[in-house]
């Protein structure tokens, strides 16, 4: 399983830049392996991301904007979904990964199962 984060290296939007940095920074800080896929510099990445974001997750007009997060080819969500998972200490579950022992998420799961 590979976490893939689709970003735009040359986005003119400061909001998109901040969201991308937020996602990538969290993954790096928590030593979660991921691949960064740039849709601005690589047409194949842009095409793949646009084709694989489910219809219900697309904007009403225009194309889906980064960051978009996938586990292999399974769509996980956009920044809002990631942010909500992070706020709920559920990022590992959101990513389809097992929370490491000692993490807030693993401790919360242990309490729920007790």
Automatic annotation (TrEMBL):
It holds the Pfam family SH3BGR. The keyword DNA-binding does not apply. Residues 45-58 have a biased composition (Basic and acidic residues). It comes from Mauremys mutica. InterPro entries: Glut_rich_SH3-bd, SH3BGR, Thioredoxin-like_sf. It is found in: Cell membrane; Cytoplasm, Cytosol. Gene3D superfamilies: Glutaredoxin (3.40.30.10). GO terms for cellular component: cytosol; nucleus; plasma membrane. This is SH3 domain-binding glutamic acid-rich-like protein. Appears to function as an adapter protein that bridges proteins together or proteins with mRNAs. May function as a ubiquitin ligase-substrate adapter. Additionally, associates with translating cytoplasmic ribosomes and may promote the expression of specific mRNAs. Monomer. Interacts with PFN1/Profilin-1. Interacts with ERBB2. Interacts with ATG12. Interacts with BECN1. Interacts with translating ribosomes. GO terms for molecular function: SH3 domain binding. Belongs to the SH3BGR family. The keyword rRNA-binding does not apply. Keywords: Cell membrane, Cytoplasm, Membrane, SH3-binding.
């Amino acid at each position: 399983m590979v976490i893939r984060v689709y970003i735009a290296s040359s986005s003119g939007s400061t909001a998109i830049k901040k969201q991308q940095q937020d996602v990538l920074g969290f993954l790096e800080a928590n030593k979660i392996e991921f691949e960064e896929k740039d849709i601005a510099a690589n047409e194949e990445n842009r095409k793949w991301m646009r084709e694989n974001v489910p219809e219900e997750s697309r904007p009403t007009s225009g194309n889906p904007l980064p960051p978009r997060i996938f586990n292999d080819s399974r769509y996980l969500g956009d920044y809002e979904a990631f942010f909500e998972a992070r706020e709920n200490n559920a990022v590992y579950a959101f990513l389809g990964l097992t929370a490491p022992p000692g993490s807030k998420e693993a401790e919360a799961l242990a309490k729920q199962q007790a």
